[in-house]
């Protein structure tokens, strides 16, 4: 997505050789009109798929998933929680995920009442690095007996191998901006 690449280059910041900071439009402050166009692009790329739910993880994926949902006819957006709230009183599915950016391990959880065997899920992720978050979300869908029809990543740092790993597992992955490398403060796209 050309507009996304331009936005990364003009508003993003490369930190070291591994991190891209895009808090001006995606992770801290949201450019809602732009994110609507991101959602539209996900719809274009997955228009051939039957989808009845979109799955993401709190917090950064929620806005993108909601914007995409509008273009898919407003299927429910379900998001995995990283902590068990006191309101999650029924059973839940859970899977472990490492956060590359935060250097932490989280347990993703979704209530059993929100995922089931009838579900055809599109996973939306803001960043794809090592693929840990998306992989954990696929595990939640498997536990529920549903099917993953695709995985959409807004920004894919392909040099970290996550999207390749998920493709090797048989998943369709569509990334809107694919970064080849980050070097000397310069971001290079594939």
Describe the structure.
- With 190 residues, this protein is of the alpha/beta class.
- The chain has one domain (2-80, 113-189): Rossmann fold, CATH 3.40.50.
- The chain contains 6 helices and 10 strands; from the N terminus they run αββααβαββββαβαββ.
- The protein has helices at 2-11, 23-27, 32-45, 60-71, 132-144, 162-168, and strands at residues 13-15, 19-21, 53-57, 77-80, 92-99, 104-111, 120-128, 147-157, 173-183, 186-189.
- The strands form 3 sheets. A 6-stranded mixed beta sheet has the order 4-3-7-8-9-10, with helices on both faces.
- Strand 7, helix 5 (132-144) and strand 8 form a beta-alpha-beta unit.
- The longest helix has 14 residues, at 32-45.
Describe the structure concisely.
This protein has 190 residues and is an alpha/beta fold. 32% of the residues lie in helices and 35% in strands.
Pattern of helices and strands: HEEHHEHEEEEHEHEE
What structural class is derived from the secondary structure elements? alpha/beta
Shape: globular
What share of the residues lie within helices? Answer: 25-40%
The profile of the biggest β sheet is: 6 strands, mixed
Q: Into which percentage range does the β-strand content fall?
A: 25-35%
- Regarding quaternary structure, how should these chains be classified? single chain
Please, how many helices? 6
Can you tell me the number of structural domains? 1
Report the uncertain regions: none
CATH topology: Rossmann fold
End-to-end gap: 12 Å
Mean pLDDT across residues: 92
Name of the top-level CATH class = Alpha Beta
Q: Determine Rg (CA atoms, Å).
A: 16 Å
Which CATH architecture would you pick? 3-Layer(aba) Sandwich
Strands side by side in the biggest sheet: 4-3-7-8-9-10
Strands, count: 10
Binding site for xanthine: 27, 157
Pathway: Purine metabolism; XMP biosynthesis via salvage pathway; XMP from xanthine: step 1/1
Family: Belongs to the purine/pyrimidine phosphoribosyltransferase family. Xpt subfamily.
Main location: cytoplasm
């Amino acid at each position: 997505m050309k507009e996304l690449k331009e936005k990364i280059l003009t508003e993003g910041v490369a930190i070291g050789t591994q991190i891209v900071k895009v808090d001006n439009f995606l992770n801290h402050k949201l450019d809602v009109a732009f994110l609507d166009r991101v959602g539209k692009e996900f719809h274009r790329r997955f228009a051939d798929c039957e989808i009845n739910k979109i799955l993401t993880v709190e917090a950064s994926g929620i806005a993108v998933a909601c914007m995409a949902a509008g273009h898919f006819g407003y299927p429910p957006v379900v998001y995995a929680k990283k902590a068990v709230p006191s309101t999650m009183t029924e059973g839940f599915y859970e899977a472990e995920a490492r956060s590359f950016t935060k250097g932490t391990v989280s347990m993703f959880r979704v209530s059993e009442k929100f995922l089931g065997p009838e579900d055809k899920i599109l996973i939306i992720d803001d960043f794809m690095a090592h693929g840990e978050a998306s992989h954990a979300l696929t595990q939640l869908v498997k536990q529920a007996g549903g099917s993953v029809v695709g995985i959409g990543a807004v920004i894919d740092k392909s040099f970290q191998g996550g999207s390749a790993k998920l493709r090797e597992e048989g998943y369709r992955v569509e990334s809107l901006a694919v970064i080849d490398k980050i070097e000397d403060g310069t971001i290079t796209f594939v």
